[in-house]
Amino acid sequence: MSPLHYLCRQDAIGEGEAKGFAPVGDFRRKIIVLRRGGALHAWLDSCPHYSTGTPMAWKTDAYLNGEKTHLACHSHGALFDMETGDCVLGPCLGQRLTRVDIAVSEEGDVFVAAAAQEEKQ
Predict the structure, then answer these.
(1) Is pLDDT above 50 for 29?
(2) Residue 16 — left, alpha, or beta (φ > 0 → left; ψ -120 to 50 → alpha)?
(3) Which numeric CATH code is attached to 4-113?
(4) DSSP alpha helix (H) spans, 1-121
(5) Where would I find the beta strands (DSSP E) of the chain?
(6) Which terminus of the chain has a lower count of CB atoms within 10 Å, N or C?
(7) What pTM did the predictor assign?
């Protein structure tokens, strides 16, 4: 089993909020964690529009559109479903963000496994 790396307390991310965390383990990109409908979801901070993957935020933790209804790539305006990671608007339609598996302990700590899932778009 891969070692787990601590990201945050689950209550540090409010409903409809998203936060970025520094890369851990084998991940080369930041990890975005957001809360939608009470559930936490995690994604690599890498827009699939370019093969090299573009970071999505234009400033710290600015991962959502103005209405806070979608994840947004502020480099070119793509919008992504917060729960599925599917691109719903922009030049990367038909593509999706890369999900990151997280675990929440009984104490409410959020962890990610050190070994990165394959980073493919």
Answers:
(1) yes
(2) left
(3) 2.102.10.10
(4) none
(5) 4-9, 18-21, 31-36, 39-44, 71-73, 78-80, 87-89, 102-104, 109-113
(6) N
(7) 0.89
Question: 65 near 73, Cβ under 8 Å?
Answer: no
Per-residue pLDDT at 118 exceeds 50? no
**Residues ≥6 apart with Cβ < 8 Å to 44:** 27, 29, 30, 31, 32, 53, 97, 98, 100, 119
Rounded to an integer, what distance in angstroms lies between the CA atom of residue 38 and that of residue 44? 20
Radius of gyration, CA atoms only, the chain: 13
CB 110 within 8 A of CB 6: yes
Residue 19 near residue 8, CB atoms below 8 Å? yes
Average pLDDT of 34-49? 94
Q: Do residues 120 and 98 make contact, with C-beta atoms less than 8 angstroms apart?
A: yes
- Name residues whose C-beta falls within 8 Å of residue 107's C-beta, 6 or more positions apart in sequence: none
